[in-house]
Design goal:
Elements lengths: L1 H17 L2 H10 L2 H24 L2 H4 L2 H12 L3 H9 L6 H15 L4 H21 L2 H31 L7 H57 L7
Helix pairs in contact: 1-10, 3-9, 3-10, 5-6, 5-10, 6-7, 7-8, 8-10, 9-10
Amino acid sequence: MPHVTTSLLLAAETAAADAPAGQNLLKFITGGGPIGYLIVFLSVAAVALVVIEFVQLRRVNLIPPPKVEALRGMLANGQAASALEFCLLPANDCYLTRILAPALQRYQRSAFGAFEMKNALEESGAEETARLFRTLDAIGVIGAVAPLLGLLGTVQGMIGAFDTVATSGANNPGYYGDLASNISIALITTFQGLVVAIPCVSLYTFFRNRIDGLAAEAGLVCEDLMVALEGGGAGTRR
């Protein structure tokens, strides 16, 4: 067995020395077999999802300052109906307006006014925040599945390695090559799974914290708009 291990190490070192750097890198992408290709596909999907989240989870998109100022001006003048129409316009659709629109509807329909509006803000805010969290689920799933696929590839490669040991003699010219190839698959898929999983799990946590921060900021903005509405007197309730 020591002789087999030494021969495998020497073969691997010789191959690594002779192969160009580009080929070594390509081997980490293509050397994992079908399971490795699936992990690569998941990595591409993860990159696309991360880019989308970086674009979406920006304050300028979720709580646009121009829309905040427009709503503050209408509510300060008691124009609750106009503010509701503003929120319902497709062109003004964003995280803030989706939270504020149900609250303004409740405000106009209820005799309790601001009290009902506060309850509606809490409900719609929780719903819209949960919606943002749900968009992260795909990244979280990839981060959880990738290392499992890597482990599956490892098991597959080790099964192939033991099959080679069991069915081929050490004197077989292709013995060491087949054995090294199966062990390579086992290690490459593990490497691929970890390379995909570590950034996905880290970014998943980062985005969740970012959503929490933006949700808290949106809550403060909504409270400020409520104060502006109360200061504007009895709003228009049609």
